[in-house]
């Protein structure tokens, strides 16, 4: 599934009015879009080339919103309803977490007014004010350079860091595809973005020797993978919790290598992250890779040999 077709899947979530404006944008610009944003009572926009632009009815991308298409209450309500396949109450976990993964691996995030449960935590969200449709990007070969650098001498553990929207998920997806040529891989796809599993089959190419754990809580999936799939390498996105830390320690102590990601703009910032920092201090990772943002999105910014 190419980038245009995934954008078309995202477009199906929109009202006809917003969809028409989106498809009035040139094909080349649409192909580089990473996000579509709807803000109630404000203006339709898209992110591409590392920046956010407002979209006019005739498909022009503008730095300022004055001539852009205004987002109505109906636009927000329809996009939200479509993301949940018309049955919002069937997805309580996704509602509480603030996002749902849709067809093709596109992720729809949203915010509004939180409804808190008596025992604590968010039980639901009402009065949706913003919807962000993140376009799943499948760029085969984007991880080839990192794969050659890290795995040329055998299986290894790697942590990839970048600011938000820096290409970590895209990189992990391609690493899964590449590494599965030589290793048994367990892909922990908690949010359904990496493999975009539909009826048990990945919509994205994550490799022939890759077993996908889709929708599992990350820590439980990692421990289950070790017990039932005996992976050479475990791949997961966005580590951070104490449960993540415990499960990854368990995996490494069981003989698996890990490839994971974390939000951080610099290596010093990465080392200060609770889970990632402790794993680095323990010597779990052989290498760390930093990706850039904007014009450097998905590109290697810095590389660290942690065993040297």
In short:
This protein is of the alpha/beta class and 308 residues long. The chain has helices at residues 3-11, 16-24, 27-31, 73-83, 92-97, 144-151, 168-179, 218-229, 242-253, 267-272, 274-281, and strands at residues 35-39, 45-48, 51-55, 61-62, 99-101, 107-116, 122-134, 158-162, 185-189, 197-198, 201-202, 210-214, 233-236, 257-263, 287-291, 300-305.
Principal-axis shape equals globular
Q: What is the H level of CATH, i.e. the homologous superfamily of the largest domain?
A: P-loop containing nucleotide triphosphate hydrolases
Rg computed from alpha carbons, rounded to a whole number of angstroms: 20 Å
Structural class per helix/strand content? alpha/beta
CATH class of the largest domain: Alpha Beta
User: What's the pLDDT, averaged over the residues?
Assistant: 93
How much strand? 25-35%
Order of helices and strands: HHHEEEEHHEEEHEHEEEEHEHEHHEE
Q: Number of DSSP helices?
A: 11
Unreliable spans are none
Indicate the percent of residues in helices: 25-40%
Explain how this protein is built.
It is globular, with a radius of gyration of 20 Å. The N and C termini lie far apart (40 Å). The protein folds into two domains: 3-134, Beta-Lactamase (2-Layer Sandwich); 144-305, 3-Layer(aba) Sandwich (Rossmann fold), CATH 3.40.50.300. It has 308 residues and is α/β, with parallel strands linked by helices. Helix 6 crosses helix 7, helix 8 (218-229) runs parallel beside helix 9 (242-253) and helix 9 (242-253) packs parallel to helix 11 (274-281). The longest helix has 12 residues, at 168-179. The strands form three sheets. A seven-stranded antiparallel β-sheet has the order 4-3-2-1-7-6-5. The protein contains eleven helices and 16 strands.
